[in-house]
Amino acid sequence: SLARRCHHRTMDMLDVPFLPFCAFLGTLGLLCVGMVGTWCQHWRGGFSLDGSSRTFNWHPVLMVTGLVVLYGAAALVYRVPYSWSGPKLPWKVLHGSLALGAFVLTVLGLAAVFSFHNSQGTPNMYSLHSWMGLGTVLLFSCQWAAGFGAFLLPWAPAWLRALYKPIHVFFGSTILMLSVASCVSGINEKLFFSLKNGTTAYKLLPAEAVFANTLGLLILVFGVLVVGALARPSWKRPDSNSPDSRQ
């Protein structure tokens, strides 16, 4: 019908090729990493391993890099058109390796904040941000271990992989959004703690607050775009039930 043809024509006009989108998303991810590093270097005193606030500064940098940007890259591996033909195993290895790299950076980020708190006598795990963040990391570790066991080890039968796959996909997007929420709440918490005595109050919106709030918005945009890309039917690997995809 005419309406259906018009609908298809409209969808074709709105259809963005994956690779340019991926290049934009990669640039946005690098911008987020660069901005969190700049924030910690320019306004928060830089980096060290001496247990001071400069040790803490590793925490936001590693969390944004690992739990958001690298994790987002791992999630999008199967949307790369080159992964749609031929053996799936190399792409599985790449997906798992990127996720493992994200997990290692995340654990180092946790070590940084615990080291800072312990050296300063500050209690651990008292804020909503810390509860949400640690819960996200624990869920991430379970997700990686279950995915490794189901999809990379040869013992898992095809029916188990088919049963677990939608669960794995669902929690992949869920963990990313929890990561974004943890990062955004952490940025806000840090600003509340830092911009008070001896500095311009947060409520007066000094340059640091504008910069860090902008960073939070960009992290949110990055997460939403990744989840949107994962949900887009035209970017999903076709023939998911082929022998290649079950290898």
UniProtKB/TrEMBL annotation:
Transmembrane segments: 18-40, 61-81, 93-116, 128-155, 167-188, 209-231
Highest taxon of the lineage: Eukaryota
Reaction equation(s) it catalyzes: Fe(3+)(out) + L-ascorbate(in) = monodehydro-L-ascorbate radical(in) + Fe(2+)(out) + H(+)
Names of required cofactors: heme b
Region forming the signal peptide: none
Chain ranges of the Cytochrome b561 domain: 24-231
Keywords of the record: Electron transport, Endosome, Glycoprotein, Heme, Iron, Lysosome, Membrane, Metal-binding, Oxidoreductase, Translocase, Transmembrane, Transmembrane helix, Transport
Listed EC numbers: 7.2.1.3
One MF annotation (Gene Ontology) recorded for this entry: transmembrane ascorbate ferrireductase activity
Cell location: Late endosome membrane; Lysosome membrane
One Gene Ontology term, aspect cellular component: lysosomal membrane
Protein's membrane topology: Multi-pass membrane protein
Function field: Transmembrane reductase that uses ascorbate as an electron donor in the cytoplasm and transfers electrons across membranes to reduce iron cations Fe(3+) into Fe(2+) in the lumen of the late endosome and lysosome. Reduced iron can then be extruded from the late endosome and lysosome to the cytoplasm by divalent metal-specific transporters. It is therefore most probably involved in endosomal and lysosomal cellular iron homeostasis.
Summary of subunit composition and partner proteins: Homodimer.
PANTHER family, per database record: CYTOCHROME B561-RELATED (PTHR10106), LYSOSOMAL MEMBRANE ASCORBATE-DEPENDENT FERRIREDUCTASE CYB561A3 (PTHR10106:SF38)
Full protein name: Lysosomal membrane ascorbate-dependent ferrireductase CYB561A3
